[in-house]
Design a protein that fits this description.
Pfam families: Transgly (PF00912), Transpeptidase (PF00905)
Number of domains: 3
CATH class of the largest domain: Alpha Beta
CATH superfamily of the largest domain: DD-peptidase/beta-lactamase superfamily
Keywords: Carboxypeptidase, Cell shape, Cell wall biogenesis/degradation, Glycosyltransferase, Hydrolase, Membrane, Multifunctional enzyme, Peptidoglycan synthesis, Protease, Transferase, Transmembrane, Transmembrane helix
GO molecular function, one term: serine-type D-Ala-D-Ala carboxypeptidase activity
Number of strands: 18
Helix content: 25-40%
Oligomer: single chain
Family: In the C-terminal section; belongs to the transpeptidase family. In the N-terminal section; belongs to the glycosyltransferase 51 family.
Number of helices: 24
GO cellular component, one term: outer membrane-bounded periplasmic space
Strand content: 5-15%
Strand order of the largest sheet: 2-1-5-13-14
């Protein structure tokens, strides 16, 4: 025999075309060749599988699946205000998911879950055939594969994505326990109503938690996994009836429930879908305030929206309702008119309530935290504190009549409201009746920079518009927000301790670790005795001055009214030991520029002693109802000090005639309790004298000059806040007075129906120029 060549050997091995056969038969593969082909294909598949498995790593979770909804609560930590989210998702541990929910998922999606190793050969074969025939409709994936798709991959329907899903599922099954895989799966599945995960779905459909789900509820949720958007079960439950029965029967076959239980089970009652609008009412403003504070602490929007935080706010649900009720007592707002209210707990700095506006989506600008308004005479207490720190006492006398002062080389002639003239008045009387000329003299002697410094120490930001060192700053040229003014007066209420106002009590992550908790210890900014004396003076504003309407509160209160020149804004800022609250009214045009409020609610002119103090009193009455009537600290015996040098240009004789004090000279006698009694006697004499002159001593700047039809309506009207600087205009007519002002025993106005605002939206904070000629109450 001849030697066989390699070609002959190969041909013998393959035997193709088949030797010894002719025609078509020689092209039919032999059994040997078919077997060799199958073996080669199998080896190739194993090789490719091995290469694919080894080259595929577990990727980072996709951002959407890893993210969790952050929830904001009222200060009780239980009542939800709203959520921050990209998707509505909240993850829980396996022990917080009902066993029946786990069993229902297995019955619906993967009955071999506890036996397979992450993949199902039968399911993969079905999926592969579907992809090859371009008829892929899903299905066949194990729970582990579905989890991998939801958590790591996308919904792309390609063979490449399916292979990745398979390789990752095998690795995940090796690295994680079945319980962990089940928990992760149930935390990532979509179940309709924007619900990702069974915890959110349990709340959205049944108002319960995943831990408390019943058999029927679990079966319905499991029935929705394949087609969660098929229909809402509250409207078309029959669309899920067949799948619901399928799940129950499989649960019975697997021994999770009895066949009798499966037969008797009925579709559970499902609550109606909640409104998609979580920002109705004040919720939108509260959520914006919380987000802003968290971002100021360094958190990003992504952290807030996906961090799964539990955020307990400082807002009290009842106080928020009280604020709304108080604002609702106002007459219908004029076009462009807005009201702000902010209430702070002096002991913590927590903002308990505010009023942001009537319609969040029409005007996202927050009336209380973003809108600014000229402070008017509510700024005078800062000069009062500066004066007390400098050595002035409440029985020191100042000129209450119009006078011209030097002001950086330009004469300045502030005027009192209605051109009123008071003669010599004590600092206490100047505070009660908001006398501009007396406070202008005080401010010049103390130094406007000192007044500004007090305002900043109390809580106004240094960059507050209009907050400068000019002599006129005492009349309220600065334009703060109600939040800032409430914060400043909260420092007075806290006896000189400043606590930063905040909207977040604490933010914790999904594991319960605290991420942010504001410091509420505060920092002392003023001596307690100075604060006690300041509070005494401001309490006299309520007792017998421009804020007398607040006596209707029926408990100790202190505060100050304020109205800007031409009534662009009107304020009342006041406090009790428990709460400090600021209320403002202001008006703007479509460009965000201030406008005169003008006649409103039957009044010719709006002042701080009218609607603002009425709103303040209504709110505080409701907010403090049932609480003990705390007292302010006892008035101190302040030691006597040398007064600042007289810089006002007003001579001693003209400013101090008939007074026991001095506006620019030393008085070595200690300020005693006897002096306090003398103050009260002098106050009565001054009041009688001014009543004889028919001047409105207990109106801050109102009394509705020129509108006799409103006489007697404003039980808190104010005097003495018209004047400003040279350009403040001609002197107004003297007010005929408001003889009903300060009447005791009046009750707060009854609640009116809520009024709708038609103001347009403005999402960014506006900056309005301040007039140096501002005259205040």
């Amino acid at each position: 025999m001849g030697t066989r060549t390699r070609k002959d050997q190969t041909k013998s091995l393959l035997n193709y075309p088949r030797a010894g056969h002719t025609g078509f038969a020689k092209w039919i593969p032999s059994v040997r060749l078919v077997g060799l082909g199958i073996l080669t294909g199998f080896v190739l598949i194993i090789g490719l599988f091995t290469v694919g498995y080894l080259s595929t790593s577990i990727p980072e979770p996709n951002a959407a699946a890893a993210g969790q909804t952050s929830t904001v609560y009222y200060d009780d930590g239980k009542t939800v205000i709203g959520t921050f989210k990209v998707e509505d998702r909240k993850s829980v541990d396996i022990q917080d998911i009902s066993p029946t929910m786990q069993q229902a998922a297995i019955a619906a999606e993967d009955q071999s879950f506890y036996e397979n190793r992450g993949i199902s050969v039968k399911g993969l074969s079905r999926a592969a055939v579907g992809v090859i025939t371009d008829n892929y409709a899903g299905g066949g994936s194990t729970i582990t594969q579905q989890y991998v798709k939801n958590y790591y991959l996308t919904n792309e329907k390609t063979l490449t994505r399916k292979l990745k899903e398979m390789f990752i599922a095998i690795k995940i099954d090796q690295e994680k326990s079945k319980d962990q895989i089940m928990a992760d799966y149930l935390n990532t599945i979509f179940l309709g109503r924007k619900s990702y995960g069974v915890e959110v779905a349990a709340h959205n459909y049944f108002d319960t938690s995943a831990k408390e789900l019943t058999v029927e509820q679990s079966a319905l949720l499991a029935a929705m996994i394949q087609q969660p958007s098929l229909a809402d079960p509250s409207e078309n439950p029959e669309r899920y009836e067949n799948r619901f029965r399928y799940v129950l029967n499989n649960m019975a076959e697997n021994g999770y429930i009895t066949k009798e239980d499966a037969k008797n089970a009925q579709l559970p009652e499902v609550k109606k879908p909640r409104s998609d609008n979580e920002r109705l009412g004040q919720a939108g403003y509260m959520m914006d305030a919380v987000r802003s504070e968290l971002k100021n602490q360094g958190m990003t929007d992504d952290q807030i929206d996906r961090g799964g935080m539990k955020i307990t706010s400082t807002f009290n649900r009842d106080r928020m309702r009280d604020a709304q009720d108080a604002i609702d007592t106002l007459p219908k707002m004029k076009k462009g008119m807005h009201a702000g209210l902010t209430s702070i707990d002096p002991a913590t700095g927590e903002v308990k309530a505010f009023y942001g506006g009537p319609k969040y989506f029409e005007r996202m600008q927050n009336n209380s935290t973003q809108d600014i308004a000229q402070a008017g005479s509510t700024f005078k207490p800062f000069a009062l504190v500066a004066g007390l720190e400098a050595g002035y006492r409440l029985n020191d006398s100042f000129r209450g009549s119009p006078v011209t002062f030097p002001n950086n080389g330009h004469p300045w002639t502030p005027k009192n409201y209605g051109g009123a003239s008071y003669g010599s008045v004590t600092l206490l009387k100047a505070t009660q009746s908001s006398i501009n000329t007396a406070y202008a003299q005080l401010n010049i002697n103390v130094g406007p920079d000192k007044t500004r410094d007090v305002a900043v120490r109390a809580g106004l930001p240094k960059d507050t518009p209009g907050l400068d060192d000019n002599a006129s700053n005492v009349l309220g040229t600065a334009s703060p927000t109600t939040l800032q003014m409430a914060s400043a007066f909260s420092t007075f209420a806290a006896e000189g301790v400043y606590r930063s106002p905040h909207f977040v009590r604490e933010a914790v992550d999904s594991s319960g670790e605290s991420l942010y908790k504001p410091d509420t210890k505060g920092e002392r900014k003023f001596e307690q005795d100075i604060m006690a004396e300041t509070t005494y003076a401001l309490s006299q504003v309520v007792q017998s001055g421009s804020g007398s309407y607040a006596q209707n509160l029926g408990r100790p209160a202190a505060g100050k009214t304020g109205t800007s020149t031409d009534a662009y804004s009107a304020w009342f800022v006041g406090y009790t030991p428990e709460l400090a609250t600021a209320v403002s009214l202001f008006r703007e045009d479509e460009e965000g520029r201030w406008q005169k409020i003008g006649s409103y609610g039957g009044r010719g002119e709006v002042t701080g002693g009218s609607f603002p103090i009425q709103v303040w009193t209504r709110y505080m009455s409701d907010a403090l109802e049932g609480q003990p009537k705390s007292k302010f600290p006892k008035r101190p015996d302040l030691p006597d000090k040398d007064r600042p040098k007289n810089k006002s240009g007003v001579s001693k004789s003209s400013s101090n005639s008939g007074s026991s004090g001095s506006s620019g000279s030393s008085n070595k006698k200690r300020y005693s309790k006897k002096d306090k009694k003398d103050d009260e006697g002098k106050k009565d004499e001054e009041k009688k004298s001014e009543e004889d002159q028919k001047e409105s001593d207990d109106s801050d700047d109102s009394g509705d000059s020129g509108d006799s039809g409103d006489k007697g309506k404003d039980s808190g009207s104010e005097s003495g806040d018209f004047g400003g600087s040279e350009d403040s205009g001609s002197e107004k007519k003297k007010s005929g007075g408001d003889k009903s002002s300060g009447e005791k025993g009046n009750t707060p106005p009854k609640k009116k129906e809520p009024k709708k605002s038609k103001s347009k939206s403005s999402s960014s904070s506006k900056s309005k120029s301040s007039k140096s000629s501002t005259s205040s109450e």
